[in-house]
Amino acid sequence: MVIAQSGGPTMVINQSLIGAVTEAKKHGQIKKIYGSLHGIAGILAENFIDLRRETAATLEAVAQTPSSALGSVRRKPSPADCLAIFKVLQKYNVRYFFYIGGNDSAETTHIINEAARAENHDLRCFHIPKTIDNDLRENDHTPGFASGARFVASAFMGDNLDNRALPGVKVNIIMGRHAGFLTAASALARVYPDDGPHLIYLPERPFDEAQFARDVATVYKKYGRCVAAVSEGISDKNGNAIAAKLSKEVDSHGNVQLSGSGALGDLLAGVIKSSAKISRVRADTFGYLQRSFPGIASETDSREAREVGKLAVRHATSGKATSGSVTINRKPGKKYAPVYGLVALRKVSKETRHMPDKFIAKAGNDVTPAFITYARPLVGKLPVIGRFKGVPVKKAKG
Amino acid sequence: MVIAQSGGPTMVINQSLIGAVTEAKKHGQIKKIYGSLHGIAGILAENFIDLRRETAATLEAVAQTPSSALGSVRRKPSPADCLAIFKVLQKYNVRYFFYIGGNDSAETTHIINEAARAENHDLRCFHIPKTIDNDLRENDHTPGFASGARFVASAFMGDNLDNRALPGVKVNIIMGRHAGFLTAASALARVYPDDGPHLIYLPERPFDEAQFARDVATVYKKYGRCVAAVSEGISDKNGNAIAAKLSKEVDSHGNVQLSGSGALGDLLAGVIKSSAKISRVRADTFGYLQRSFPGIASETDSREAREVGKLAVRHATSGKATSGSVTINRKPGKKYAPVYGLVALRKVSKETRHMPDKFIAKAGNDVTPAFITYARPLVGKLPVIGRFKGVPVKKAKG
């Protein structure tokens, strides 16, 4: 078998890798366990490492380490790439291909699988889900999201306190190209009624700069401060991403670069400074830390990420399916429990899932309680935030 | 007594507050324990809360919560402010004033103390140290630094892995107006010999854009990637902060706004993109998360922050000193141990301490092993970073 990782890293993508590797060791039909470095680029370059040569201690340490231990890539295979890939896989007698990634990686797996069928290659292609964006179709949620959400919620808890200590307007830009789930997770930071984020802007609703300025002014008038969570993917009423106007870089899947720049935050801070008469306006862009910060992964997320890796190998070796993508849904009822499944690759590839309407407040600048109920069990327990009762001292005379 | 917090929040500034409050309860000469909201602004507005009315559980929860629970302020008192402050303090029969903050807050405490002497007011003024910048004179280190450093080191651990997975150039901007300690702490992220940050730029050395581009190109050639840590306070050879050219905001202590904008990072990413032929260049500005992220404070830092709060009250009530600033130094020898002291307010106010030369590598783009030895015991244990041994699979023939 060959396993590889693709697309943006997450805090738990290595759990899926190690889950697959430890499971593969249990199945006699898998003799060699090769890790391809940097996704399909590693296959094309015959750049494999032998994962059977790693100790159990190393496997465990890697599982708990964020980011893609095999390296990653953003590359959509051309028909010529597919032929080159098959040539390599035949040379190494590879019958199982596992690809851990988001919808673009599912598309890559699908393309390779279709080409394998057309060329009559004996290759089982399985996609293992991962994305902090939480935007894979056919899934209730995806591994990586809950840990990213945990970072975002924790960061907003601290940042809300910072803003409370030194009042002003604070705009924080959160990852999420088309889906607002990660930005929405900022709402989990609220503990006390006046806690931020006071406003949440998602890519699922058109963003209007004038309305944004009015919203901020309203909150500022009420609390003397305002914390806003804004998705990097916010778009105007014509569907054009605001950040895309500030960027020129596009990858082979057609995605414009949105992260790795503070330009959108600075633009929005400028909007507030010029429209409202508020002197202290700050913007932070949480950036890559949201997907790679070590030591704070969600326990549920870590466990589920491990499980989807294992399940992909079980499906592949069971003989019942020759390809597919492992899914996570949730058991109906009050107590959270995951339900794993397997769907056809084309069902999760390319297109993305958006925040359902029931999770978005009517005004388009917040989430609903239904979203909190959805996200809370995934993210787990957050840090305790203490606050003084704050009994005012009676004013003295004199 | 009145206690207040001032300047930028930290993850452990509430430990000092609660340390002082719990200690004050033990001293009979202190009848009332008032918290002034938003530093001296709260005194001027007679905006006090009664800290004796808080439960022990609340005090403990607040101690472990980041940011300034009493609110903060950046305000240098004028002579008229001092007179107004005394009027209020007399009205409430306040004889002890504790101010938790950095060098600007020490200056405020010093000004109030000098004015009190001149006006013959019976007021004991004590400064309790805090600053993530670690730039207070007379101290080996200051409460808040080690926890900020823990955030920065952890963030670089994850970001280095992210950059290893998807290679390119990554520039991260770190807080620290005049002192490079927090930026230097990024070096603690290194576990394996090729780990980033590969370059570290501090305000203590002149920053040259062309040299920066050459340094990055050299690292990129060697590793195929590069992670750079850059202080927000980097300045050109004439001592002008690069970020100050991009900003116009100045506070009453004369500090130009450097944080809360991604402009410097974007500028430096632009320098690399235009000079070197490297396509993937990203910049993140860690921003306010460095001083307020909950749940990851350093244990040593938390303990010492609590202790300096207690000691300030003990000094004030002992009768031996009528004013001063609590200091932390370190016992000579291999095993880390703090030594607490008390110095005159003027000795820590206004001017800042810089990174000593022995902590800065000769080339001016890295730290020395001496800095690591200095910082490691303060920051404590960091997350375990696993890595595959990575035994290459022998190339197949055919």
Architecture overview:
- The structure is a homodimer of 398-residue chains.
- Chain A has 398 residues and is an alpha/beta fold.
- Chain A has two domains: 2-143 and 296-347, Rossmann fold, CATH 3.40.50; 146-293 and 354-379, Phosphofructokinase domain (Rossmann fold).
- Chain A has twelve helices and eleven strands.
- Chain A has helices spanning 13-24, 40-44, 56-63, 79-91, 103-118, 145-165, 181-184, 209-223, 263-275, 289-292, 299-318, 369-379, and strands at residues 2-5, 34-36, 48-50, 96-101, 124-129, 169-174, 199-201, 226-231, 281-285, 323-330, 338-343.
- In chain A, the strands form two sheets. A seven-stranded mixed beta sheet of chain A has the order 3-2-1-4-5-10-11, sandwiched between helices. A four-stranded parallel beta sheet of chain A has the order 7-8-6-9, sandwiched between helices.
- In chain A, helix 1 runs antiparallel to helix 3 (56-63) and helix 4 (79-91) crosses helix 5.
- The first copy, chain A, is elongated.
- At the A-B interface, strand 3, helix 3, helix 6, helix 9 and strand 9 of A face strand 3, helix 3, helix 6, helix 9 and strand 9 of B.
